[in-house]
Amino acid sequence: MKLPVSTEWVLHCATTLAQLEPGVTASTAQLAQYYDLPAPYLAKQLQALVKAGVLAATTGPRGGFRLARPASEITLLQIVEAVDGTSSPYECREIRRRGRGALPPEDCRNTCVLAEKMAEAHEAWRRSLTGVSLADILASLPPSAPARTRSRLAGTS
Amino acid sequence: MKLPVSTEWVLHCATTLAQLEPGVTASTAQLAQYYDLPAPYLAKQLQALVKAGVLAATTGPRGGFRLARPASEITLLQIVEAVDGTSSPYECREIRRRGRGALPPEDCRNTCVLAEKMAEAHEAWRRSLTGVSLADILASLPPSAPARTRSRLAGTS
Description:
homodimer; 157 residues; mainly alpha; Arc Repressor Mutant, subunit A; two-stranded antiparallel sheet; 7 helices; elongated
């Protein structure tokens, strides 16, 4: 059970964008340089965040990305599911209906109790990540972080 | 983020073995026929459960598998981690130390707050599955299930 490597990238990039002044954007090239990431692949991930409503993209020579909503309204779950999808890691292929032990259809009207318990665990994971917003992450950073982030991102320091 | 397909197999096989009379075992061939699964690959998964202390294997012409402990002492987490390992789905490669935004070592003494929140979510998932034992699963089955399971597994019905 592995999340894509890009999960770390998008969590960090969203945290970085959350530290910009209102109205300011950052380009894929700036974010790629900031974390030393491959720009073409990062661009694809940032587009996934736009599609999920986490980021907004502006076009033109000064175009780039910014948060689509206030940091307090963006959760870690939204960011992670933007690049990995929402499906549960457990796949129930209904083997209870197969082979010599196959249960009759009338015994399979309810979800298999094992699939149910696996789904509950996935919901516990989702709930944990829903409980953390980008604003919570920013609040845990040192007070000097936003100024440093902005100047490094702009390449002025 | 996907668990192996065999996760469903081992959860069901352990539930099946939990329904046998004390001292009775089932062979790989019996379990494979019961769920119509490929025996060689299932054998590998059952060995992983033995290694994890969930099942005990007996050898000889009547050899097979049984639970290594009472059903109340075997959790879904132990079964799932026997085939998928214990590592978190989130991989932190410390990109905070890389590129133009690289943080100095003194700012990286603590775990990155994003990695910390992802680890908390994984712990919530593990806690959920630790809270469910095979005895809990058995308690949710219809009272007629164990007798049916035994006769189908033995091939006598």
